[in-house]
Design goal:
4 domains; Immunoglobulin-like; 7-stranded mixed sheet; 687 residues; Methylamine Dehydrogenase, Chain H; single chain; 5-stranded mixed sheet
């Protein structure tokens, strides 16, 4: 495969500038600069998304998609996973063979197993295998009504929101299915960026300086509210919301922040920061850490993003490049950084013009012992943080209840110590599991620093037992008042209705396959990976459940109070939901059966329930099977095209295949692997 590179007169000057930048002493955070080698991508990198420090995915012109499992390893650690591009011509001009509009302008990866990207010409890409081959990316084209899309945000694999010019908002609650809904807002806003920290909040910004918010992004035009920024009509290009209590964006010379993004224009505060050139992207790995980049390779960072002007520090990581005539580029676009993503406080990655990548493993220039700690905290005493816990009420069945906790440290920790109630404090690791009988419990975890000093505890209080009170033993008769104490000649009595122990309404989730995945709620409150979980929500509130399968499983849908692949509930009464995960994957300890007589193979897939199996690949024939029950399905792997022609004369060929399984009532899961096909020609001996 050949790749194109268009040389420019300023490339030599750019290389010289890079060398000078690398040699210059740096104060504070240290940023490294490099260029992706000519080949994986040609031209501009527009966006990057890093769901973890071990995976980053970037997109650019010519429909390029590249990824790295070691973003801190430099430009050489990136590989092209979709390098060819589609070279889509402008609509109405099919004769044109090259067009810059085929750029993929936005990408969002909420997990390491799902990414979605949006193109400038109305095409959308999704994958459950971000580092896989080109065939791992599915594509759908929505046509003229979804062109000129600039940004996308997916808080979970079950919701993606993309924004673009002319007030276009494109959403999907099942992105891998290829079903997207197009909404056109009441005004033709030129929207450039969007960030959705939860299913119930999205914030978008535009070139006219508008800030748009929605608490129901899939609800259509009327759910989006418009506010003006304090600075007036200065262009806004990127926004980042690490939580519902903080959003950050920027314009030419100012950083804007809000601790109440839906509070209107008055909820946003603008402070002077940077070099005066436009902010092109922002990324906040935590509420206490935000970074922004500009079209002049400036990096603006803060550990108090909601603070004043002094809270932001500014640094240029690449001197402004010159035009071929020797004049300075007044806009700074030649060394622009267009996208940024910080998966943690220990790594930030930016991408931009001329295949350029910048990255830092200490972007916020803090003492390693103090990273993330509150101001004034003793760096020798790290803080423990609980990242996963059961619901406030856990239903106990025979044998008690199994509860799981996950935790991490803020600051450097050598080990952790855990206990339940006043039990013995023991050294522990995340995840920590307990089997408990009925009662009220408090889980505590401490982080212990390298010097042996222990930081403050993180704790979580919960109850194990029946989710509802037992009915009263004696009910009040006519004329009797409810009382727990018998009066003279009387008896104690209670009102007859059984009621919830807590205010609000209880949501109970039954999870028959606890190892198959995790169920979480939006708004937060329920996080379930055990057989039974419960959480209380405010009367009349809207609750959405989000099911995420683990490797080796597929999500098979909800039942009881919900049905199908999605679940939204109005908590006007107690609700019970059953979530189903089924097995999906290759049989363990089983090899692919090769048929050497005709150069084919048979791949056996375990499908844990009824659904649809599809085997596909660039060099193999598409195979479809519809198992009606849990079974092991044999899928033939038959070469096609050039690979099939080469196998006609015998030999060995490797093909990449992708198997997708959509359980009945659930969502699609997929796996990819490489299979070697072998054909042996048998020569007949006439003797």
């Amino acid at each position: 495969m050949r790749f194109r590179f268009r040389g420019r007169g300023f490339v030599v000057l750019g290389a010289l500038a890079l060398a000078l930048c690398a040699a210059a002493p740096a104060s504070g955070s240290t940023w490294k600069v490099g260029e992706i080698p000519d080949g994986p991508v040609d031209g501009i990198l527009w966006a990057v998304s890093c769901p973890s420090p071990s995976l980053c995915v970037a997109t650019g012109t010519n429909s390029a998609i590249i990824s790295s499992t070691n973003p801190a390893g430099g430009p050489g650690a990136w590989e092209a996973v979709h390098p060819e591009g589609y070279w889509l011509p402008p609509y109405g001009d099919p004769g044109q063979t090259t067009y810059p509009g085929n750029a993929i302008r936005g990408v969002s990866c909420p997990t390491t197993r799902f990414c979605a990207a949006t193109g400038y010409q109305g095409h959308f890409f999704t994958t459950t295998y971000p580092t896989g081959p080109a065939e791992a990316w599915g594509e759908v084209r929505l046509g003229l009504d979804a062109t000129h899309m600039n940004g996308i945000s997916c808080p979970t694999p079950s919701l993606c929101v993309a924004v673009g010019q002319n007030g276009r908002v494109v959403t999907s609650t099942d992105p891998t299915s290829g079903v997207w809904e197009i909404t056109k807002l009441s005004e033709p806003f030129d929207l450039r960026g969007v960030s959705c920290p939860l299913l119930s909040l999205c914030v978008a910004v535009g070139l006219e300086g508008n800030i748009l918010t929605s608490t129901d992004p899939t609800g259509g035009t009327g759910t989006w509210q418009v506010a003006r920024q304090p600075a007036g009509e200065r262009a806004l290009n990127g926004v980042s919301c690490p939580s519902t209590s903080l959003c950050v964006t920027g314009n030419s010379g100012q950083m804007l922040s809000s601790t109440s993004p839906t509070g209107g224009a008055g909820a946003w505060k603008a402070v002077t920061a940077g070099s005066g050139l436009p902010v092109s992207a922002a990324s906040c790995p935590a509420v206490g850490a935000c970074a922004a980049v500009t079209n002049n390779a400036d990096v603006i960072v803060s550990t108090e993003p909601a603070g004043g002007a002094g809270a932001w520090s500014f640094k240029n990581v690449l001197p402004r490049l010159l035009l071929p005539s020797g004049q300075e580029n007044p806009k700074g676009d030649l060394n622009a950084i267009w996208g940024a993503s910080c998966p943690s406080v220990d790594l930030c990655v930016g991408v931009g013009q001329e295949r350029r990548v910048i990255y830092s493993t200490d972007p916020f220039a803090r003492d390693p012992l103090k990273k993330g700690l509150p101001k004034g905290a003793d760096p020798r005493r790290p803080h423990a943080v609980i990242t996963f816990h059961p619901g406030k009420r856990v239903e106990a069945r025979r044998g008690g209840a199994l509860v799981t906790f996950r935790f991490r440290s803020v600051g450097r920790a050598a080990r952790f110590k855990c206990r339940i109630n006043n039990g013995e404090l023991k050294t522990c690791k995340s995840p920590r599991r307990y089997r408990l009988k009925r009662g009220i419990f408090v889980f505590k975890v401490y982080a212990v620093g390298p010097t042996g000093l222990r930081g403050p505890a993180a704790h979580y209080r919960f109850r194990v037992g029946p989710l509802l009170e037992p009915g009263p033993q004696q009910t009040c008769g006519p004329g009797e008042k409810p009382t727990g104490i018998a009066g003279p000649g009387g008896r104690p009595c209670q009102e007859p209705p059984t009621r919830a122990l807590l205010a609000g309404q209880m949501l109970v989730v039954t999870h028959p396959t606890p190892g198959g995945g995790v169920v979480m709620s939006d708004p937060p409150g329920l996080s379930c990976e055990t057989f039974f979980c419960g959480a209380e929500f405010a009367q009349g509130s809207l609750v959405r459940l989000i099911a995420t399968p683990r490797k080796g499983f597929a999500f098979a849908g909800y039942s009881d109070a919900c049905s199908g692949p999605t679940c939204s509930l109005t908590m006007d009464r107690e609700r019970r939901v059953t979530v189903s995960f089924v097995r999906f994957g290759e049989l363990p300890r089983t090899r692919v059966r090769k048929v050497t007589a005709d150069g084919t193979a048979v791949l056996t897939i375990s499908a844990g329930g009824p659904g649809r199996l599809v085997l596909s690949g660039k060099d193999v024939r598409r195979q479809v099977s519809n198992p009606g029950q849990a079974s092991n399905v044999n899928l033939p792997v038959v070469a096609r095209g050039a690979v099939a022609r080469r196998l006609e004369d015998g030999g060995r060929e490797s093909v990449d295949v992708r198997v997708a399984f959509t359980p009945t009532g659930g969502t699609r899961a997929s796996l990819s692997r490489s299979i070697r096909l072998v054909r042996i020609l048998r020569v007949h001996d006439p003797r």
